[in-house]
Amino acid sequence: DAGVIQSPRHEVTEMGQEVTLRCKPISGHDYLFWYRQTMMRGLELLIYFNNNVPIDDSGMPEDRFSAKMPNASFSTLKIQPSEPRDSAVYFCASTPGGDRAQTFGSGTRLTVV
Amino acid sequence: KNEVEQSPQNLTAQEGEFITINCSYSVGISALHWLQQHPGGGIVSLFMLSSGKKKHGRLIATINIQEKHSSLHITASHPRDSAVYICAVRERGAQKLVFGQGTRLTINP
After folding, report:
1. DSSP states of A52-83 as a string?
2. Which residues of chain A are under the pLDDT cut of 50?
3. Chain-chain contact of B50 with A104 (C-beta, under 8 angstroms)
4. Would you state the pLDDT for residue A60?
5. Contact B95 A55 (CB under 8 A)
6. R_g (Cα) of chain B, nearest Å
7. Would you say residue B54 has pLDDT above 70?
8. Nearest chain B residue to A40, by CA
9. Which residue of B has its CA nearest to A90?
């Protein structure tokens, strides 16, 4: 089992550019979560999916952020246009649900200059 | 007030010392998680508990549901235990986690 796979590991982009982060959950995990981690705010939930359907997107900061899960093995988090305040580490996690723990990916460190 | 509060925010100790990190929460939960994050590293789940106590090696996690409080203990601490420890709760009927701010632990040799 390769775990939760995120790409890229690092992304540096200029303000105003579109950024796409990718996540492949563990096979068989029905839940997928996108988190953002900053020094100021710690870890925050952005959105999560159950069986590819968005369940709670209340943490998505604004319309510049969007997330999709076209199938059970792939999800994207897109920021358009990006701003310097979006600089953070973005984690994806998945779980089978119930009483099972979440498994986190290695994260994508995003820097917007 | 945050739903999940951890203390202390920072902790520095000498190798071999007994370490305690505390977590208090204000909502009804179905489970509490302790996570570990090494500098520049990913997040690893250490424990998930809903009652009582769990032990894994030198790490012990306890929870008191009535008092809405959990502790993470490290016995015979070692420099490799240096990391950020994060408490997170899963509210009843939900799958999402709410996180504490984390405790940065530094163990000096």
Report:
1. TEEEE-TT--STTEEEEEEETTEEEEEESS--
2. none
3. no
4. 94
5. yes
6. 13
7. yes
8. B101
9. B42
